Amino acid sequence: MADHSALRATLKKTATDFIDCCNKYTVDAVLSLRTDTCKHTHLPSSLGIPTYSKTEYGAFYGQYVGLMSDCSCRIVDEKEMVVDVESRKVVMYTKAKANTPLGEYENEYMWILTMTGDGKMIEDIVEFCDSAKAVELVKKQQAQMNA
Is pTM, for the whole model, over 0.70? Predict the structure, then answer.
C-alpha cells in the first residue's frame, strides 16, 4: 500500500506543478512536464481546436503569451482533486484570470491529466474550458483586428 500512497502523492504533485508551470506563462514552462509524445485535447469539440502534439501545442500557446499579462491559474479546491492511481489520471477544476489589451479575461477549466508510470510526467491532457468565455475573447480579438 505504501507504493500506492507514494504514487498518489506524486500524481497530485505533478498536477499542482503543472498549474505552477501555467502560471509562469512561458512556452518552455508549459511544455516542461509533458512527454515528447504528449497529446493535448481541447474540449468542447465545438470550439474546433484540434488535438495537438507537444510541439504543436507550444506553437498554439505561444500565440497567447504576448497577448495576456498578470496571468494566474489556481486549483479551486485541492480536496476535490480526483486522483486515480490505477489509471494514473488526475482530474482538477481550476480558474484562470489574465489581463489583455481587450480587458480582463477569466475562465474556468476542468483538466484530465494522464501521467507516466512513475507519475512524474504528463502523457495526455484533456482541457475543458467555459467555451462561451473563450469565444467571447476570440470575437473581441477579431473585432479589434478588423477595426
Answer: yes
